[in-house]
Amino acid sequence: MADTLIIVESPAKANTIKKFLGGSTKVVASMGHIRDLPKSTLSIDTKTFEPKYINIRGKGDLIKQLKKEAKSAKKVLLATDPDREGEAIAWHLAYILGIDEKAVCRITFNEITKEAVKKAVKSPRTIDMNLTNAQQARRVLDRIVGYKISPVLWKKVQRGLSAGRVQSVAVKLVVDREEEIENFIPEEYWNIYTTLKDKKSKKEFVAKFYGTNTKKIELHSQEDVNKILDDLKDADYIVKEIKESKKKKTPAPPFTTSTLQQEASRKLGFAIKKTMSVAQGLYEGIKIPGKGTIGLITYMRTDSTRLSEEARLSIKSYIETEYGKEYYENRYYKTKENAQDAHEAIRPTYIELQPDSIKEHLTSDQYKLYKLIYNRVIASQMAPAIFDTTSVKIDANDYEFRANGQTLSFKGFMSVYVETLDIEEKEEFEKIPKLVEGQSLQKVNVDSKQSFTEPPPRYTEASLVKALEEKGIGRPSTYSPTITTILARRYIEKSQKQLVPTDLGKVVNKLLVENFGDVINVEFTANMEQEFDEIAEGKKQWKSVIKEFYTPFEKVVEKVDKELEHVKLEYEVSDVPCDKCGKLMVIKYGKYGKFLACPGYPDCKNTKPYIEVIDVPCPKCGGKIQIRKTKKKRNYYICENNPDKCDFIAWNKPKKS
């Protein structure tokens, strides 16, 4: 018989904690949620908004075992994850095990270390019903939206499709960006560059055309450029002004969930889902000689940049020992509005465990992610990097050229870590020789360059997470499942790391935006997140929030359902006749993309794969060239007569001869 039974979510976490406590304490895992809403029905009373939870199918034996263990223990402590989801799991466990929700039975820890776990065991608390109800509100609202809107998609597009409150907004962002790209009209612009030589040092540098001495001039045509080039033919290049200064660059804050996902994507090439999986393993426990099995990082679902004072002292000591006192700077970062600041930023639990010292005990992915987290948090408490900057203005026949130079004089935090950005700073820097005002420079050459403005880039997983966070859509625990879900539903797909809407995604988005625009939009979704935050803080009652949403929403669903009965979805007609009835087949959208279907449905249920062709004949036999996809979604081009009569196949799209 165990004196104390501790229930956590995962076996890995259970194994780590067992080793800290020993004695008559038993640690078991609930394997995540044990109760949830059934999939077969709405399971929410739409008058009282009371959810009808059931035990999750397949967990009967586990529940029996948990009940047996709880009955024989003197004390039960629920140690599920320290967030809203974890609080709700603890509440469901209390219900299953017959524990009063007001009992002192809940413990949490932000890091799985011996000190943190023992401290938590000594100071249990009651289940936080505000956090639990915030999770219930999200679950119930998402169930209502999904189960009320999805049948509309079944009627008009295809059975089996589903709409999610947050996922649909994420799809909309991707579709809207694709439309921006498709509608983008490039604008021509030009730059003029001159290579100049300092006669004394013989060193060359490049200066960029700015305008006249009084205003900046934008160049949009070859004619504009030619006029200026003519004016510059006999120009003398005189140094008009030199400004020298020092510029500081400060480090990025420690990681939150969102910034970790973004940076791991950019620096390591990790998908969002992979980042969270590897981070979970680092949090739950790794066996390290001399330390035993310990969590190497703090809890990885957080939107706080705060560090504990104990961590700060450890980091300070490390920096001053390894780099010197001049490299340390005590920094506090401002956490963004609406952040759930219950946890610290993501950081190593033991600063003395440097990545290279434990590399052999980690997998390759664990090492890469741990090193990223470790270096980021060390850099966050380091002195700024200092650059010596030089800015030069040069006169040439009433025109002005400019050159900017920058050299690193003190590396500071850049000795350890430099953040990668989606769009890097495009300021151009030259190595400028030592010049003096009024001196004459020798012209080596003058060049012009034509360019065109570019459309906004497609989202990547990293930049979509950034957009969701900036717009207040979702919280740390939702970014990864949101993107995973819309990829799995094939509403979007990856193409060379970029997110592209599928035809199915475009059709579904159009239908939802046209009919449920008040729900499938950024503002509504962000406002609901604030409502959930207020429930978590005890400022609002969760059922009142759901009722306020449901009353007008129900009327919209009824109205749309009636209106769509009389609307026939127009399908694109192909040139392929149906084998069974002769009608020209239409292009429909399925789970795996386009397919051909007989318009005579339900009398004729014939379907065929849809094969896309391009308007370029096969360079070998003149047949049609089909576009196919590999398992990894990469396009390739193949002759329709392959392999019987022609062997043409290529990665690159053939060109018209």
Round the Cα radius of gyration to an integer and report it: 31 Å
Continuous helix count: 16
Question: How far is the first residue's CA from the last residue's CA?
Answer: 83 Å
**Strand neighbour order, sheet with most strands:** 6-7-12-11-8-13
Structural class: alpha+beta
Topology overview:
Layout (H helix, E strand, L loop, with lengths): L3 E5 L2 H11 L3 E5 L5 E2 L17 E2 L4 H13 L2 E4 L5 H13 L17 H9 L6 H28 L8 H19 L4 E10 L6 E9 L9 H10 L5 E13 L7 H12 L3 H13 L1 E3 L3 E3 L14 H14 L41 H17 L4 E12 L2 E12 L29 E13 L8 H10 L8 H10 L3 E4 L2 E4 L1 H13 L6 H15 L5 H24 L6 E6 L6 E7 L2 E5 L9 E3 L2 E6 L6 E6 L5 E5 L9 E2 L7
Parallel strand pairs: 1-2, 1-5
Antiparallel strand pairs: 3-4, 6-7, 6-13, 7-12, 8-11, 8-13, 9-10, 11-12, 14-15, 16-17, 17-18, 18-19, 20-21, 21-22, 22-23
Helix pairs in contact: 3-5, 5-15, 5-16, 6-13, 6-14, 8-12, 9-11
Concise description?
The protein is built from 16 helices and 23 strands.
Question: If you had to describe this structure to a student in words, what would you say it looks like?
Answer:
Helices cover 35% and strands 21% of the residues. The longest helix has 28 residues, at 129-156. A hairpin with a 2-residue loop joins β17 (584-590) and β18 (593-597). The mean pLDDT is 91. With 657 residues, the protein is an alpha+beta fold. The chain has 16 helices and 23 strands. The strands form 7 sheets. A 6-stranded antiparallel barrel has the order 6-7-12-11-8-13. It has a 4-stranded antiparallel sheet with strand order 16-17-18-19. It has helices at residues 11-21, 60-72, 84-96, 114-122, 129-156, 165-183, 222-231, 257-268, 272-284, 309-322, 364-380, 461-470, 479-488, 503-515, 522-536, 542-565, and strands at 4-8, 25-29, 35-36, 54-55, 75-78, 188-197, 204-212, 237-249, 286-288, 292-294, 385-396, 399-410, 440-452, 492-495, 498-501, 572-577, 584-590, 593-597, 607-609, 612-617, 624-629, 635-639, 649-650.
